[in-house]
Amino acid sequence: MTVDKNRLLLIERVLLLKSLSIFEETPETILAEIAHLLEEQEVEENTTIVSEGEIGNCMYIIFRGTVKVHKGKQLLALLEEKDFFGELSLLDAEARSASVTTVTDCIIFRIDQEPFYDVMESCPEVAKGIIQILCKRLRTANQKIFELTKPSW
Amino acid sequence: MIRKSESKLVEKLFIFEFFQGAAIAIFFTTAISIFLERKPTSELPVVFIISAILLWIFGFIYSKLENKLPFRSVILTVLIFNLSVIVLFRLLMQYQSESWFLFLFISFFNVLYLLNNLEFWGLSALLFDVRQSKRLFGIVSAGDVPAKMLGYLTALIMIPYIGTANLLWVAAILMSIAFFIFKPLMAIANVDKLDKPSSHHHATFSFKTIALAFKVNPLIRKIALVSFFSFTCLITVTYVFYGYVKQEFENDKELAAFFAIFFAIVRGITLVIKLAGTNRLVNKIGLQKSLVLTPVLLFFLCLPALYFSGQDNFINTFYMFGVVAVMLEVLRSAILTPVLLASMQPLPTHQRLRGHTIIKGFMDPVAFFFTGIVLLILPRVEGKVDFSLVSLFLLLMIIGWIYFSLTVEKDYIETLKVAVRDRTLNARDISISDKDSLSYLMNRLITGSEKEVISVLQLVSSQPEYNKEFLEKALHHNSANVQLYALNVVKLQKATELLPQVKDVLKATEDKRVLSQVIGTVSAIAPKEDLSEYINHPDPEVSQSATLALLFQSDLKTDKKAESELEKLLASADSKDRINALKIAGELNSFAYSSKVVEMMQDPSPGVKQASRMAAAKIGTAELINVLLLEFASTNNDAEVLQALASGGPSAVAGIKDFLFKQKCNGTKCRKLVSLLGKMGGSESVKLLEECLRRFPENANTILLSLHQANIKSSESEEQYLLTIRENLVAASHMLFKIQFARQHKTHQIISRALELELLGIRNKCLWLFSFLYDSDKIKRAQIGFTLNTKESVANALELISVTVPKEFAVSFSIIYENATIDDKCMQLKKSIHPPLLSDAALVKNILFDVDYVFNNWTKSCVLYSLAENKIDVNFEFIEPFRSSENKVLKNTADFLVEKYALN
User: What gap in Å lies between CA A9 and CA B897, rounded to an integer?
Assistant: First the structure.
């Protein structure tokens, strides 16, 4: 796709961002403002990207490969291409609730909180997109809580 | 008229209505002929009353079914019921000479008609949005007209062979055919999916619900009343006309033949008007005139008819009432009913369905009952009704009809506004110009919570004519926050007549915040008031207010006390004192403190630094503004500098202008300054933004957003705005053709998506420009409708646009942005503009070199990327300029393209 196969063009990074559920409602013209924040990392198999309990201040996007989300030895989820994790750390630095380790060799993209804040400040649309996603998640969570607490008779 | 994407649905609906309509028409011909043959017309009022009762009962049952069952099952139930009724009456024909049978037979026609109407309009209302309904209701409901023509003509042809009674078998066959259309119609309409989200909201038919809908929703109330008066007129005219018909024809065959011909003609004319004109008429003359047209025409036609009836001229009266009856039937079904139903489209689905049920299921029976009772109690001469009294009654009803028709439009527009804003409008919409509202507000101010009192003050403070009494009460309120708010309003409005009350607060208050504020307010409304006793107040905030007040009141040179106090504060070791002193210096707006302010920008305390920035912006000399902008350009303290500049107001505009023009309005910092200008507002900011708009059209989106935020109407720039709108609408039309072209080529998908974004950008630009020129409140509501982006909200938004902006813009804007396929839109546009000649090369050049329109860098990047991906040969010279673009994505893509070709 690109001349240097290891590097994605900025336009391709925009398209990658657009393919993520968290940014699907955000116009590409706005994502273009974030694209240059994506830091490409090649990670070998069995490398821990995120450790449980450490303070997180960045989000990761998987471009190639598979990672596992786990608490100790307990596997919580397998994430693949175009999955992402740590998105809440973009807004709020908190201790990571689980560890993430690569299952295969991976290419991942990292967005750090600080430059992302700068972009949000100059482009309110970015913040708007994130807020919309968080609201949707909150509504879904509320609905689930409501359904779980609803009497079954 | 009918979009390609809608054609199948419209076709099926049309046919579905066609067969049901034909069956009901035959049922009616049979029933009325047999009834009039055996009974005098003077017994018709009894039929009206029985019809009313039956309609209430079946309307009630229908709404219960609508609540309980999915809409699909409701439609099926109605079909089965109507077929059963037709068959049952044919089987009961042996009792046809019995009175009860005759009354029930003719009354049941109204039941079949009601159920068919409720089912059909309920379905249509679910399927179409407000804009579709305006275009399509006239057409889909037209299925009813040829159907009835077919029904009446079938009756006319068949009567000599099978007799009047057996016509019911023909009706039963036609009704059965509707069953075969039911399944495919449901499949296309996807009714189950539409029904689910609002099934629990469907209309209920209790008096409580109706009363509530009448009380809360003025649009439903007005439409229901228009419907009531129009139906009363129709019944009355029909009653008189049947009287003459009964005298002219004797047996059921003659009567059936007459009614078949009469109604076939009526339906024929109706069909022509419906197909040729209902929607065009509404678009051309507007809602109000469309509604008033029928009663006004009726009024003028009734006059000669009434004249002839007074002359005992049977033939002339018969024909005149025939004409009135024809016209009323035609206009009511061709114009009035579709317009009334389309008027309810901006209502939420459940209210709309409730509205339909009220009109058809409640108001029609009320009209039947009312007219039946009136005609029964009118004095009779030799068993016949006095027609002069009937005429008087008719004229009164026409006047009522005209009156309520005139008032519908206002409520329609209000409903539209609410529909796009939200669906949870507070029931208490306060207009504060009337006594009741004012006394309600005063009551809230005295007895309400702190929040309520402040919101009351917010409301009344925008209405200076009524607010003095409110402010007086608020100044003596026991909440400090209320007092603070009131004092601020008094200060801003310079309400000198409230000085005694403000001085009372000054003497009485023990709250330091209130004291500080009241000192500021007194100094603002009474510049000579002596406030020096507060300068040494132990509270720094109070002391600062007093110092500031004194410095404002007097000349600096003469008032040494205040000046030395300020110098002392500026030099204080306590950063809080320095901050307070800088606040005072800023408020004073005096050049004398400039150098001190610049010096204090280097203060180690961040609070003092920010206070000095704020003071610099407030003093606002060119030198100080430049110092701030230099910091803005060279550091990351953007937020702090912008906050300071915002507080400074118009004095910063000149410096911002230099900065923007030097940077060609490019980059994040410029965008922040443009956004700041919008937030600052004011004529200077607006002028600069407008100049930026002219000089840097590529940044139009950001600039227009800021102009929109500035919320200022600029009549000076009206011509420029109009021109920009025209250019943008033309660009949007061409954009649609480009999207259509790009979509046809798999290789251009990325371009197509980018162009769609451009199209949305143009929509937003146009909306902002509309808001500068026309009713910005309505345009803002339309913007919300577009943002919600549901089928209904977009349709309502477009409807709001169409009643707010001139047709010149509204028509093309609606075509471009309504819910329709690109092909449909392009087809529509071809009628008014020449589509651009497009080829791969033309599309690429058009976008890359901004032919006719300045495209986003993102769109250009997509074009370059598409060229690279699809290995299309390009001239390097074309690409070279983009390699030096300041836009990172565009530059990166251009570099990649050149690199790729160099490698190849």
Answer: 11
| Cα B131 from Cα B797, distance rounded (Å) | 10
| B849 beta partners | none
Spatial distance between the Cα atoms of B27 and B115, rounded to a whole number of angstroms: 14
Flag if A3 and B892 touch (Cβ within 8 Å): no
CA atoms within 13 A on the CB side of B479: 16
Please report the beta strands in B586-692, taking only residues with DSSP state E, as ranges in sequence order.
none
Per the CB < 8 A criterion, the answer to whether B207 and B365 are in contact is: no
Q: Say if residues B420 and B781 touch (Cβ distance below 8 Å).
A: yes
Q: Do B858 and A3 touch (CB under 8 A)?
A: no
- Per residue in B418-470, pLDDT (tens digit) is 544 433 323 233 334 445 556 667 777 887 778 778 877 876 776 556 578 88
Domain termination site, one of B390, B419, B448:
B419
What DSSP state is assigned to residue B324? H
**From edge to edge, which strands make up the β-sheet containing A106-112?**
A39-43, A106-112, A58-64, A84-85
Distance separating alpha carbons of residues B371 and B348, to the nearest angstrom? 32
Is A28 within 8 Å of chain B by CB?
Answer: yes
Chain B residues in contact with A2 (beta carbon < 8 A)? 896
CATH number for the domain harbouring residue A122: 2.60.120.10
User: What are the structure tokens assigned to B392, written together?
Assistant: 């008087």
* pLDDT given at position B425: 29
Token digits of residue B40: 């005098």
Whether the CB of A144 is below 8 Å from some CB of chain B: the reply is: no
b/e string for B614-626 if b means 16 or more Cβ within 10 A? bbbbbbbeeebbe
Comparing CA positions, the residue from B731, B756, B810 lying closest to residue B778 is B810
Confirm or reject contact between A126 and chain B (CB < 8 A).
no
Q: Please, which residues bridge with residue A77 across strands? A: A69
CB contact under 8 A, B858 and A122: no
CB atoms within 10 A of CB B94: 9
Element (H, E) at A68: strand A67-71
Expressed as residue numbers, the domain containing B818 is 718-903
Q: Are residues B227 and B84 in the same domain?
A: yes
At what angle are helices A28-35 and B857-869 packed, to 10 degrees? 80
B115 plus B255 within the same structural domain: yes
Cβ of residue A3 closer than 8 Å to a chain B Cβ: yes
Convert the pLDDT of each residue in B258-313 to its tens digit.
888 887 787 778 777 766 666 666 666 766 777 888 888 888 887 777 777 666 66
**In this complex, which of A14, A15, A29 lies closest to B856 when CB atoms are compared?**
A29
